[in-house]
Fold each of these.
Amino acid sequence: MEFFVTIEQFEGPLDLMLHLIKEKELDLFDLDINILTQQYVEYIHAMEQMKLDVASEYLLELATLIEYKSKKLLPNEAAELDDNYQQQQEVDLVNRLIEYKKFKEVSIKLDDLYQERNLKFDKPQSEIVNQWIDINENYESTSVYELIKAMNRCLKRFQLSQPYEVNITQKRISIEDRKKQLKINIKKFNEVFALSNTMYDCRDLYEVVITFLAILDLVNENVLSFTIKDDEVYFKKV
Amino acid sequence: MNDLRPIIEGILFVSGDEGVSLSQLSEVLVINEDSLVELMDSYMTDYNSDESKGLEMLCYGKRYKLVTKAIAHSYCQKLFEETSGKQFSQAALETLAIIAYKQPVTRVEIEEIRGVSCDMMIRKLLARNLIKEVGRLDTIGKPFLYEVTEDFMDTFSLTSLSELPELPEYQTVSEEGELFY
């Protein structure tokens, strides 16, 4: 048994009908609706057997064709008015086929023009131009609220671009704190030590003064006793 | 006037695939459009007849641009890896053809001729800037009207719509026709 599958891509029911007309060598201008309908139905059946989804457009045209055919088969005793109506439908279909055929044919010519144009290359606009402002650009007037929105966006962006505000201020050590430091420091010192020893970690005059005041306090609290010898003050832990 | 030619060539080179319109050129060169058309016509003829030149001056869809001559195409293919250019589907071509010949036209009118839904196709063509919406038809539903764009003209090598290939003429049958008796 011969088995062949042809899946041609049709651009819709009209395209399919034109294909059938051509294949069966029917005359478009003297169209036998019966043969066309028969072929069309067969094709739709074949599509269904191949488990292809048949688009609704095909089914619509199928229904229309069957309507033509069934009317033709019925005894023609109907009023002449009906006859005209039926004929008008046939004429409509043929005219639609002709109209579609025109555009189908001309689209092939368009494709030729496209292929021809494709042989000629153009290049993108020179890159630098993107950075220029097009003087011919159309500026459409928009509402003032757009302007406000734009301004708000600018402000937000400006804020984001600013660094966080940071104030760095030097915290000065207090006499009390210095006393605590000294109490720890002097544990490492010898039994007797000079005033200059206590100042080893002072970085500026302020700290020297603070240290001196702290020492005075410690003497006052009887933590240290002192003696002066050769322009140097010596302390002794009590 | 002849000294404008190198300037024009330069402008066209820089503009690339964007091309320049007549009005842009006339504004930049400070020359009225009528004499510019005259100048451009003769310049194009001279330019394109110079066989030593690899470039060709085109004016499709009212925009002038420089392109390579078709003769270079096959050699360029040798130089660069061949990637098949974007092709149009039959459906796209049919839809474009209907719009180009019948514009301005609504979606329903296109669908009547093609017998299939064209909604997606129209959106695709809009996205490719080959067609544009040009207002709405004053009827029920106020449907959009579509026309082809300058890009369409350039894509299909058309200076104007009058250059479209002629629609094939078929005798449409009428009710009185004897064809059905």
Amino acid sequence: MGQNILFQYLTWHYVDQVRGILLAWKNFLRFNLNYFSISLLLKTLFSHWRKYQWSYGRGFDIKRYAEVFFSNLISRVIGAIIRFFLILIGVVAEIIIVLAGIIVFLGWLLLPVLLLAGLWFGFKLLF
Amino acid sequence: MFNFNLKTAPIFQAVKWAKHPAQNHTRFLESFFFVAFIIFFLLFLFGFLTNTLDKISLSRLLGPSILTLILTIFLKLLSSFFNLKLAKPGLDFNLKSVAKNPANFNLAGCLSFPSAKAVFESIKWSRSMKILEVDSGSLFYYLLKDNSELGFIFFRAGLDFNQIKKGLKENLREIAFRTSKSLAGTQSEYEPIFAENFQNSVLEALKIGSNKNHRRIEMGDIISGLAKFDPVFKKILIQNKLKAADIEKLTLWLESLKERIQAKKKWWEYKNLIKKGSLGREWAAGYTLTLDKYSIDWSRIMRERGFPETVGHLEETKIVERILSRREINNVLLVGEPGTGRKSIINAISSRSALGESLAEVNYKRIVELDLPLLVSQLENREEIEAVLNTIFQEVVSAGNIILVINEFHDFVSGKERPGVVDISGIISSFLPFPQFQIIAVTSYQGLHQDIERRPTILSLFEKVEVPEISEEETMIILENLVPLIERKYRIFVLFPAVRDIVSLSAKYLPALPFPKKAMDIFDEVAVQVCSLKRKVVTEEDVVKIISEKTQIPIGKMEVREREILLNLEQLIHQRIINQDLAVKEVSSALRRARAEVFERKKPMGTFLFLGPTGVGKTETAKALAEIYFGEVSKIIRLDMSEFQQIKDISRLIGSAKEDGYLTTKIREDPFSLVLLDEIEKAHPNLLNLFLSVLDEGYLTDGLGRTVNFKNTIIISTSNAGYQIILEALARETEWSLVKKTLLDYLFEKGIFRPEFINRFDGVIVFNPLTKENLLDIVGLQLQKLKEGLLKKDIEFIITNPLKEKIVQLSYNPQFGAREMKRVIQDKIENVLAKALLGGEIKRGDRIEINPLTFQVVRV
């Protein structure tokens, strides 16, 4: 029985919980990528917006050809612009999650020290 | 050997720490410091922002704010460390391996923290009371005392939790009084010995826990183990008409609730985060404006509902997903009876797809049900409907992310048109071959056989997936999930026995309807009934009442009645049947054997083959059984098997797409029936093969592929094949026990029946020919009926012996038994009486006889 309680605490704090925080961090990063559909948006960056596309039809008519070409181009450009902005927001959110994760991670590692420091500071302010 | 030592188990450390006074107050102190922090910090903030306090005062407020915050965090850390680490020490074995060989492991090491704590307390109590053996009673008490959540099990079972705890405390006092002297002298080191009921309870808990794939023996497992082995608990259960299995099911219910709450609390898990959905995923897909107008978006609905858990049909869901992922023939035809939960498969796929848990080709697609009745009702003519459908289907193809659901698909490809129904087979055929056009069509067996199979081109573009009804266990889970909704809706409390009986009774008495729908409907009806009676608690009696009303079967009374019937079956049959003592005895014993259910039985209630010459009472015995057992002769489904001599006649019996099956329909409508198969030897041999599964498994698959349950029927086949053997045997005065053997040998030899057919009956009963004395008694019975009829007209009919003898003389024929008798009585007695009554020869108050020589009415 009776493993050293301090040793157990240290294992819990610096192994079990650290693993848990890293896993949660990974979940948030993965979720954010999925929430902003970043991989799909990158894959379909230049696709037509909402599949709005026009057919060139049969035969060759330069006027119609140009018209269809530009219509399709506009559809693709609009799609690309809107997607780009969402990707951008997604990337920014991803960076924020990375930073927040670093803060939480370091905060957890330093928690015992922070608690002691807080205790000392609290007493100092009090007396 | 019972290997159980709590002190050496890793969990003992947590138990010890839990006893520490500081640990007991952690929760309170945590809350206290947190509140103090809030107060100090608010005061500090107020002073800081309003500039009303000087620097020293602000420091005096900030100091305690920080200190109380630090203490709150510190205590939170401690309690998390305790709950997550100490109370769950690492295990280097799993319960399954321990359950295989419990003697090799210290079982105390498998206990969860609450279980270990209860064991610790019960050992401590036994030591303090100087009791040598640790009894299961003390374990039961301490488990309940410290774990109020177990109250759920008892409240739901309709038991008073507090009263039980009081009773257990009382029981402990009794144990202490009875056995406290067993620990002789003062022992410095108390080594607990565990009573047999304690050992058995823990071993059973281990088995239950390992079956449930638990990591440790949880307190629910211990409670389930105690339900089987603790004498006090057993007594409580018997008094309240509960079984140990009920407690096990209740703990399962409690555990699944706890699991769900725990899973929801872990908001950082990917499974929970993903429920928030995603943005921009549909930008690569086209708009579906027309489809959106006439459809139900199941993906959206499931998201709005928070992706509720779907129960059952896991295998079918996976098959559907696999088909949808194919490049070709990626349309699914879901075939199942309405009410089997076909839509729950659609719901499951919608959820799995939206959460990205399905296959890559199905993930993030929209599952949209086309509301054809709405479309048809809103548009005026066929051309318009076709134009809109064409647009919708084109949208589906171009959008690229739609899986279309069409409910009751058979209605729309049948070629028939009626209000709300239009034939879309022409238009859909041109779209179905496109891989981008994916459909899940929902239909029934009848719809498949009657309508869809007539369109082989359409059918060939679908992959069929059959949806069977879900199991009783799965239905139970669905009902348990429904309980909170029903309770909130009707403001009632539902007891577990009511839920249990909804499932078991609807399985028994409503076999024609599928699970889960029948159980859900009954549940709703029971709730409405209880609510309308302004009562607060739903009990099993309410369920029995509703199902009795629905089926017109006196459930509950049935069991008592059946027991009485079975015990007195011989006398009851003999009220109608003369002679045939041996046959009646055999039928009665076989039925008693079958119904006592010494072993679990899948077969019908009783299956018998009656052999013997014509007119000896075979059919009459069947009628008597129907009347005695099911309350009325009309419960007989009589089939003259000479009408089923050709193979094509089978469809008449079990149905086909074109016609209803005579037998299967009747059994589906009224499962509590006696099936009488007259002259079975004349039926086509394939038909006898069909009955093999009925006699063996208790079910038959009808012409539409539905399973028809015969478990609540009595099946009697009659045959006069080989009656000459009986007559000859009688003439030679052969011993009766040999007659049956000779007769069966003859039947096998001539190939009339195969041994495997005969062996499947619960009893093969040979009826012996009637003697003159028997016939005299039968005449007596028949004339008695006439006498009772006349007595209602105040006419006394005196039955004389010479009359009886004359009737027997006129009707006796060893080959036809008593069959002629009915005709003779009709001719000679009933006709004469009718004429005399109409002609005014006999009047009210007369006493009459019939002259046996002239058959004239004589007044006496």
